[in-house]
């Protein structure tokens, strides 16, 4: 199968849905590539992008307060967790911006609701399973392809445009008479047929990308993030490959003993840093067109809880990484950590809307208009996109 | 549509060859299964005792504290052996049960009030015990009794951290204030009790209610399973008044006078009795038994029974059988990986399960008692029917089929196990002698018809 066939095949149903726009009036697509990394569970933002200059930091974080000497200062009073030290070159080179005091537009401390908001891109839960990344593909009228590097279809990618899923398979399938007969049987199942065909067409590239990554599993543990990010880079580096990827990692719900340098959370962060570097290394020349955004459904409580961890909070941190990053080291309207500055007396106060960041990034990466970005994020017309993020 | 087949697949865990003929009147056959004694699973010599489990958990805890790597891996092996005994007994029951509607109900409620060993090794050996002692005894009883039992079981107390949640103004809390390690309030369980177990995320509670409920539940703890505890009793639940937050508390507008352990009991019973709990569970049950988008009439019927009987799960289960939409072939459910694999094993007349099954379920992202989050596993098409998973099932079918002795099944019999629309292609393949018998079995169980119930 040639590469173009693979890419169209991955897009099950999508082209048909849109009337096969072989001649499109949309502007000529550039080469932008976008990777949305979702950290499921609620990353502790204050242990990630650490506000070392805030006078209340040490007292409010108590036994979870870092010794500033262990951190990687990035300027403007912030420093990255020790585990993120591998990203120091990217930070020094202006290819990384840390996001702080950022939150989804809806106040919730539920994983389920929080992830739903972040993945649907809406401003309140409405039971919708349409994801904002799928709407992004819709707005680009099928000129771009998406891929979910996840075990199962994440909500962010669900919607009318067909998107392939891929995860490091432990049961590699091969094409043969058995699979062909199954294909005949699947012709009778209108719901499953497209999915089955998408799987067949993914096999080719998947086999190539899994070489040497046995046991990569679902990317939940530190050592598994790098191979997953490396595989993602392989998919996106192809000239006719997908341009938009959803990647997810779990394990961030740190209610107990999250630790400091070298502790359980810091080790996860180290895995994330390794993953980002693995992506950069594997992406080759496509790196120059790539932007990676790292987000989570909510931050955690400012104070430690009684068990050496933190409970579900509100505003948190994120990252934007890539050569296209256009601005300084930290994007935040810092609300402060003293007791009265906290949201409901316990959480970092949200001052930056996730949609402002995401709209700004996709406008920059894919050269979209504000109107198009507002279609990706319905109900966000009054949220000003941070167009200063990407050049 | 064949109603017997529907009863076996939609309500049960999948038809075995020949079982359709014995089902008789399908609705009456389902009702006849609803006897509490059918839900019991014990007496098997293979099952570990509470003491055995506690001793394995203690051993692991001690090994972690002493930082003895060798002892820790030995303890892990002991835990894994217990897990295998529990999970293979439970899966074997699902595969061989003649009352598989009851087993589906057990699986549903076990997932609703789930515990998980993911990231919590000490929960692992208790997970099967939890299902046997918390879910099964109440699966045809009262919902509130099930929730109360779950709140007191070491698996839940350890999984959602309540065992170590300490009231800040309790005796122990005051004594260790500031500087103490691992001592203080943890609201994890209280939040999930509201959001996931009872009233649901839209049930009308606020952050304040979570915090108050967490305080009410301080003291609900464990004994005999943590190395630092004394020997205050046999392994299990212990109310520890020394860590209980004193004073009156208010949850969702109801004031609870200081009464130690009694506050938690009252609060849990009150939450279970809320109309929002009835609505939340009715929606979840309808989604499981009817459709990812169930008709409102089905949800209403379940909620009405729930309210009228104060959450009597026997009556609620009877209502499920009476739902017209549950028998409507226009509604289908995509089999979850566990459902699919169990249906496969029932179809090929497996009589026992091997530890490999546990591995296979992990590959399929649906390991027993190990959901990724307290919400449990989902059961909708969009969550399970992604391209990657379909291909995994296809490959696995071939592997399972190659292990079925040729004499055990005739591939043609699979046509009688599922509703197949437009069955021409499948039936001609199953009769095609030029295809190996094993591959024909694989086509039957790996094909699209077998993915639905």
Write the layout of secondary structure elements.
The complex is a heterodimer of chains A (391) and B (453).
Chain A (H helix, E strand, L loop, with lengths): L2 H8 L3 H4 L15 E7 L9 E2 L6 H5 L10 E4 L2 E3 L7 H5 L3 E8 L7 H10 L11 H8 L6 E4 L14 E3 L10 H10 L6 H18 L11 H16 L6 E6 L14 H20 L6 E7 L19 E6 L8 E2 L20 E2 H13 L3 H7 L15
Parallel strand pairs in A: 1-8, 1-9, 5-11, 5-12, 6-7, 6-8
Antiparallel strand pairs in A: 2-4, 3-4, 5-10, 9-10
Helix pairs in contact in A: 1-8, 6-12, 8-9, 9-10, 11-12
Chain B lengths: L2 H9 L7 H4 L3 H7 L3 H4 L10 H17 L2 H28 L3 H13 L11 H12 L7 H9 L2 H6 L11 H5 L12 H10 L9 H10 L3 E4 L12 E4 L9 E3 L2 E3 L4 H12 L2 H15 L6 H13 L4 H10 L14 H11 L8 H8 L17 H4 L2 H17 L20 H8 L5 H10 L7
Antiparallel strand pairs in B: 1-2, 3-4
Helix pairs in contact in B: 1-3, 5-6, 6-8, 6-18, 8-9, 9-14, 12-13, 15-16, 16-17, 21-23, 22-23
Helix content of chain B: 40-55%
Largest sheet of chain B: 2 strands, antiparallel
Largest interface: A-B, 62 and 56 residues
Strand content range of chain A:
5-15%
Q: Could you give the count of β-strands of chain A? A: 12
Task: Using the CA coordinates, give the radius of gyration of chain B.
Answer: 23 Å
Mean pLDDT of chain A: 84
- Shape assignment of chain A: globular
* Poorly predicted residue ranges of chain B: none
Count of individual beta strands of chain B: 4
Contiguous helical run count of chain A: 12
Task: Please state the overall shape of chain B, judged from the principal axes of the Cα atoms.
Answer: globular
- Share of helix of chain A, binned: 25-40%
Secondary-structure element string of chain B: HHHHHHHHHHHHHEEEEHHHHHHHHHH
| Strand adjacency order, main sheet of chain B | 1-2
Spans of chain A of at least 5 consecutive residues whose pLDDT stays below 50 are 1-29, 170-175, 207-221
Tally the helices of chain B.
23
**What is the radius of gyration of chain A?**
21 Å
β content of chain B, as a range? under 5%
Secondary-structure-based class of chain B equals mainly alpha
Q: Taking all residues together, what is the mean pLDDT of chain B?
A: 92
């Amino acid at each position: 199968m040639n590469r173009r066939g693979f890419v169209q095949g991955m897009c099950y149903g999508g082209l048909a849905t849109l009337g096969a726009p072989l001649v499109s009036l949309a502007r000529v697509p550039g080469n932008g590539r976008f990777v949305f990394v979702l950290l499921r569970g609620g990353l502790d933002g204050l242990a990630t992008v650490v506000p070392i200059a805030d006078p209340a930091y040490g007292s409010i974080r108590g036994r979870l307060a870092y010794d500033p000497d262990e951190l990687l200062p990035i300027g403007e009073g912030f420093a990255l967790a020790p585990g993120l030290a591998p990203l120091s070159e990217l930070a020094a080179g202006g290819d990384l911006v840390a996001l702080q005091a950022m939150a989804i537009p809806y106040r919730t401390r539920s994983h389920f609701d929080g992830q739903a908001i972040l993945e649907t891109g809406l401003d309140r839960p409405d039971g919708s399973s349409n994801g904002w990344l799928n709407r992004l593909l819709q707005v680009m009228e099928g000129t771009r392809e998406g891929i979910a590097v996840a075990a199962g279809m994440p909500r962010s990618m669900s919607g009318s445009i067909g998107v392939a899923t891929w995860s490091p398979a432990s049961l590699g399938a091969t094409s043969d008479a058995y699979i062909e007969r199954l294909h005949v049987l699947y012709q009778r199942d209108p719901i499953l047929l497209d999915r089955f065909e998408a799987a067949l067409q993914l096999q080719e590239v998947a086999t190539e990308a899994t070489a040497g990554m046995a046991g990569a599993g679902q990317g939940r543990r530190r050592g598994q993030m790098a191979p997953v990010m490396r595989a993602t880079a392989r998919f996106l580096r192809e000239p006719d490959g997908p341009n938009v990827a959803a990647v997810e990692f779990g394990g961030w719900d740190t209610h107990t003993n999250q630790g400091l340098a070298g502790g359980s959370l810091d080790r996860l962060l180290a895995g994330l840093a390794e993953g980002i570097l693995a992506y950069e290394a594997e992406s080759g020349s496509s790196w120059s067109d790539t932007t990676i955004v790292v987000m989570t459904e909510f931050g955690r409580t400012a104070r430690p809880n009684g068990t050496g961890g933190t409970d579900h909070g509100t505003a948190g941190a994120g990252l934007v990484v890539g050569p296209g990053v256009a601005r300084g080291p930290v994007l935040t309207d810092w609300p402060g950590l003293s007791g009265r500055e906290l949201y409901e007396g316990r959480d970092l106060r949200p001052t930056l809307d996730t949609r402002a960041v995401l709209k700004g990034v996709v406008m920059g990466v894919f050269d979209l208009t504000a109107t198009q970005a507002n279609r990706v994020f319905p109900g966000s017309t009054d949220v000003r996109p941070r167009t200063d993020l990407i050049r | 549509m064949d109603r017997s087949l529907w009863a076996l697949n939609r309500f049960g865990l999948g038809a075995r060859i020949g079982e359709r003929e014995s089902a008789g009147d399908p609705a009456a056959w389902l009702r006849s299964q609803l006897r509490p004694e059918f839900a019991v699973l014990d007496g098997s010599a293979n099952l570990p005792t509470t003491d055995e489990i506690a001793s394995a958990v203690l051993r692991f805890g001690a090994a972690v504290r002493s930082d003895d790597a060798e002892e820790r891996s030995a303890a892990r092996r002991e835990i894994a052996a217990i897990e295998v005994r529990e999970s293979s007994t439970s899966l074997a029951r699902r595969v061989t049960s003649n009352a598989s509607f009851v087993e589906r109900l057990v699986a549903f409620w076990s997932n609703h009030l789930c515990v998980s060993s993911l990231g919590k090794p000490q929960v692992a050996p208790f997970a099967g015990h939890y299902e046997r002692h918390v879910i099964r005894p109440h699966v045809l009883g009262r919902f509130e009794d099930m929730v109360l039992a779950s709140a007191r079981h070491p698996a839940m107390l350890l999984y959602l951290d309540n065992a170590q949640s300490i009231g800040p103004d309790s005796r122990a809390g005051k004594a260790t204030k500031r500087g103490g390690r691992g001592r203080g309030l943890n609201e994890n369980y209280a939040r999930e009790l509201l959001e996931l177990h009872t009233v649901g995320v839209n049930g009308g509670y606020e952050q304040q209610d979570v915090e108050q409920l967490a305080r009410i539940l301080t003291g609900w703890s464990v004994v005999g399973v943590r190395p630092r505890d004394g020997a205050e009793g046999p392994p299990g639940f212990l109310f520890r008044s020394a860590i209980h937050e004193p004073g009156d508390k208010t949850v969702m507008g109801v004031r609870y006078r200081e009464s130690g352990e009694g506050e938690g009991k009252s609060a849990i019973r009150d939450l279970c009795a809320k109309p929002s709990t009835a609505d939340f569970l009715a929606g979840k049950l309808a989604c499981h038994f009817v459709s990812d988008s169930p008709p409102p009439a089905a949800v209403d019927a379940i909620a009405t029974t729930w309210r009228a009987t104060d959450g009597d799960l026997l009556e609620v289960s009877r209502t499920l059988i009476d739902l017209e939409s549950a028998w409507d072939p226009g509604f289908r459910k995509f089999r979850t990986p566990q459902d699919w694999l169990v249906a496969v094993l029932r179809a090929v007349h497996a009589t026992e399960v091997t530890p490999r099954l546990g591995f296979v379920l992990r590959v399929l992202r649906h390991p027993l008692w190990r959901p990724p989050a307290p919400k449990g596993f989902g059961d909708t098409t969009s969550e399970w029917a992604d391209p990657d998973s379909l291909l995994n099932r296809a490959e696995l079918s071939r592997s399972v089929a190659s292990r079925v002795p040729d004499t055990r099944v005739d591939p043609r019999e699979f046509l009688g196990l599922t509703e197949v629309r437009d069955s021409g292609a499948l039936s001609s393949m199953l009769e095609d002698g030029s295809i190996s018998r094993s591959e024909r079995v694989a086509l039957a169980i790996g094909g699209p018809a077998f993915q639905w119930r």
